[in-house]
Amino acid sequence: MENSCPKTRVFAVIFDLDGTLLNTEQLTKDILKNFLAKYGKIQDNEKEKKRLGMTQKESAIAIVNDYDLPLTPEQFTREILPMYYGKWKEAKPLPGAERLMRHLHKHGIQFALASNSLSKNIDGKISHHDGWKERFVTILGSDQVKSGKPSPDIYIEAATRMGVDPLHCLVIEDSLVGVKAGKSAKMKVVAVPSLQIGTDTFSVADSILHSLLEFQPELWGLPQFEDWVGKTLPIEPINLSGIFTDGLFHAYADNSLTVLPDQIWGLYLGWVKFDELKVSKAVISIGWSLGCCNSERKINVSILDGSNHNVYDGKMQLLIVGYLQRSISEDNILILNNLDILDEDKVTADAALSLPAFSHKLCKSFKREDYVVDDFCVESEI
Question: Chain centroid to CA 82: how far?
Fold first, then answer.
């Protein structure tokens, strides 16, 4: 959901890290909760949402004060940081992140990393991802500038190191703290919120997206993507197991590997399998059901083989392999409800899933083995 082409052309891109490129925040969300429980404290989720994007030092001071912990901020940091180290290496790129960085690198567009994390922690997060450190022109942590976000210092320094005027830089951020920092630096800013909150919260941003899959480089004077297959986009396969009932899929919550990133939204195509039945094509609409106090993932599945699976209740395996272009809107509005699955989506998905690029058998060569389910990798009737 992006704006029309800006008057000022972009010559360099500056990324935030946590919640923008890597799914570290969702992966580590229970660490503070468990830590506080040791001291008889209950985590306040609203307070933690407001801390999103803070520097490590600011966050430590606030947590110690808010929960009245019998620790200094320094003691708190020393105790809790080791709990994060082991999780960081498990963090996966968020949807569209790897694709965008490869695209910019291929076309010689400079890009940098500017995070409120300490530089040594940044290294611990990205060192597990091949080629990431080499692609960034510069990598900056909050300890390398006078003040972290929302101060513009880190973004101005990144632009200086790249030799690009801030007016020609595009910032991509997930937190309001980061968005404000980018705008204070006089840069264009794309917000990709890592929380399910309304558009008005990020109204200061120039553009608001559900995920980087929606990013359209040409709107910023950058080269267009060249990987669309008609109206569909092959994506890194995501495998989920759960229960299917009344047209809705409910992923099992007891396996962290099946947790979808919050940024996953829109229309997708993929494959489903019920128990020992054959593999079938499907269109999947992923959104949120918003309540007064919480939000829940809502996944609608429309099976394309003509059988009456929509009345089937039972275990289901779901392999998402592609993204439908109709998910991308020109309106700068962050819709959280599910998109309706139209007949045109079914026709588009059915044709695409007959192509090798969207085959369920591709998981044989899929590098991230934690997403692979053997049942999808064998020869089967389609």
Answer: 24
> pLDDT exceeding 70 applies to what percent of the chain?
85
Dist. CA 352–CA 229, nearest whole Å: 8
**How far, CA to CA in Å, does 346 sit from each of 87, 215, 328?**
38, 24, 17
What is the pTM assigned to this prediction?
0.86
The string of pLDDT tens digits covering residues 220-263 is 999 999 999 999 999 999 988 889 988 899 887 654 444 688 88
Report d(CA 192, CA 209) in Å as an integer: 5
- For residues 311 and 330, what is the distance between their CA atoms, to the nearest angstrom? 35
Host H or E run for residue 36: helix 29-38
Look up tokens 């480089």; give the residue: 217
Contact (CB, 8 A) for 37 and 194? no
Tell me what the pLDDT averaged over the chain comes to.
Answer: 86
The model's pLDDT over 255-289, given as tens digits with 9 standing for 90+, comes to 444 468 888 999 999 999 887 667 889 999 999 88
Over range 154-165, report the average pLDDT: 98
What is the reported pLDDT for 337? Answer: 87
Mean pLDDT of 1-6: 52
Burial state string for 273-290 with b = 16 or more CB within 10 A and e = fewer than 16: bbeeeebbbbbbbbbbee
Cis (ω within 30 of 0) for the bond into 150? yes
Q: Is there a catalytic annotation at residue 206?
A: no
The answer to whether 192 and 172 have CB atoms below 8 angstroms apart is yes
Q: Which residues of 311-330 are buried (b: 16+ CB within 10 A; e: fewer)?
A: ebeeebbbbbbbbbbbbbee
Provide the 10 A C-beta neighbour count for residue 68: 8
Query: Backbone phi, then psi, for 223, in 5-degree steps?
Result: -60, 145
d(CA 183, CA 205): 7
Q: Which of 16, 153, 206, 262 is catalytic?
A: 16
pLDDT digits (tens, 9 = 90+) for 23-33: 987 777 788 88
Catalytic annotation on 18? Answer: yes
Sheet holding 12-15, edge to edge: 139-140, 110-114, 12-15, 169-173, 188-191, 207-208
Among residues 18, 206, 262, 345, the one annotated as catalytic is: 18
